[in-house]
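Exercise: predict the fold of this chain.
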Amino acid sequence: MTATTVTSNRTAAATGGTPALVVVAHGSRDPRALSTVRALLDRVRTLRPALPVHLGHVELNEPLLPDTLTALGDGAAVLVPLLLSRGYHVKRDIPEMAAASPARTRVAAPLGPHPLLVDALQARLTEAGWPTHAGPDHAVVLASAGSRDPESRADTARTAALLATRLGVPVVPAYASAATPTVPEAVRTLTARGYRRVAVASCFTAPGRFATQCAAAAPWIVSEPLGTHPAMAHLLLHRYDRALGRGGEKNAPKGARGESTCGSAAWARPATTHAALARQPHPAPA
């Protein structure tokens, strides 16, 4: 089943069966983004074949989220943002689109910060040539899209801190737009501090303009977007389970033990947003 098919599992969702998982992507003009997201959803379906899995976009690509939800009728669905931090889309756009639909919905937390996200970031860096044992002259710039929302920046800072702990080197969050520092600024800062091997970790779900822009600023190695890494599929299912009040442990082989992000709540129309993430940022090591 392709990601654009939103009617084949309608009967189960509408008759009180398994709530559908609706993965909410941002959308991109880069055709590689849509193909990557579809491939990621196929991984999710492989992990849990009985789960109805659909795709909806905030903008730029079809199917748009309102169309996906309309096709589900009044069935139950959990919306999991394919976004890596809180921000306007998570806090306003997605809940408002859900509230305007006939579906009974819950909105899960975004994918980051979370140890499974760090699993994917570390793996992509390793693929790009990051050494097993980094030296004192190694550092990382965590390249993200950026947002004016301070909670989004706090989430990115927390992801950077988790990655720094994992790698044992400084990790500085940087942004493609709407926030500072930019990736070139972060690279210059680390270089001025004596770090000669500065890698750029692409904290993007799929290829696109921002990922390409940030990669061009890398002075050394740059990782690929997170894409279809297995940890991303596990993390989508983990967010789905937590929104339903389940533990989600079986979908968190490395990182989710003891981690709490969402609580359970009654199905709601309009939608209820679950965003119980840490409120205090944990700055990345300088």
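Check your answer against the key: Confidence is low (pLDDT under 50) at residues 1-15, 249-266, 270-286.
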